[in-house]
Amino acid sequence: MTVACVDAKARFDEYDQRVPKVDADTTDAPMVDTLPNIDGVWLLAVDPKPIAAGAFIQMAVTWDITSAGPSGTLDGSYQPLMTFGLAPDSPSRTSVGVPLVANSVPVDSTASFTATLTGTLPGPANSVSGTEYQVAINLIGTIRSTTLVCGTVTGSVGPIADVSGSTFAAVPTGSPLPAPVGECPPATAVDAGVDAP
Questions:
Q1: CA of 53: how far to CAs of 83, 128, 168, in Å?
Q2: Neighbour-count burial of 61, counting CB atoms closer than 10 A to its CB (0-12 exposed, 13-18 middle, 19+ buried)
Q3: Tell me: the pLDDT tens digits for 63-99?
Q4: Gap between the Cα atoms of 165 and 70, Å rounded
Q5: By the 8 A CB rule, do 107 and 69 touch?
Q6: How far is Cα 24 from Cα 36, in angstroms, rounded to an integer?
Q7: Which of 79, 165, 170, 189 counts the most CB atoms within 10 A of its CB?
Q8: Distance in angstroms between the alpha carbons of the first and the last residue of the chain
Q9: What CA–CA distance (Å, rounded) separates 80 from 93?
Q10: Cβ pair 72, 35 in contact under 8 A
């Protein structure tokens, strides 16, 4: 009698290729009836955590959302701001270079989107090194409310082939500019309604 050995790794790899990939950032995002209206100018800050945590790269983004109930499209013009050598909340954060544009970005029924930005990050807008770089990044975000948009960042900046692990957040702007926020707020624990003994 012969007994065949099962190649468990090969079987798992085969299974893994058949199962669709799911974006874990939006798996538990609640469905919305109507997309929050985020039309206007926002301060967006990217926190490049794997490279230099807290060295926020900041942009003044003008968003225009077109909503069809629980889904829609998002147009965005992302204007880099001068941050190199400045405090993160400096009043000297001014526009530098040309905006990066991502238009007609689909927004799904969880108010989530992926905006792809490609172009030049001017040196003065690079708070990490002051060096001009070509960027090709994805902002994988969720519109949390009319006062907060946040999520994660993937892609490349100059010689850095993978910026995964970076985060971003955007808040409505004003004059003076608000302090940057670089990530979604931590998830709050759910109160089970049971008192401790």
A1: 15, 9, 12
A2: buried
A3: 999 998 889 999 999 999 999 999 999 999 999 999 9
A4: 29
A5: no
A6: 22
A7: 170
A8: 61
A9: 9
A10: yes
Report if pTM > 0.90. Answer: no
Amino acid present at 117: L
Residue 85 — left, alpha, or beta (φ > 0 → left; ψ -120 to 50 → alpha)? left
Q: Considering only CA atoms, which of 1, 22, 7, 32 is closest in space to residue 111?
A: 32
Q: For the chain, which residues score pLDDT lower than 70?
A: 1-29, 188-197
Residue 107: both structure tokens together: 């927004």
159: preceding bond cis by omega (within 30 degrees): no
Indicate the helix (H) or strand (E) that contains 14.
helix 8-18
Record the tokens describing residue 101, joined without a space. 């544009």
- As given in the structure block, the two tokens for residue 66 are 């077109």
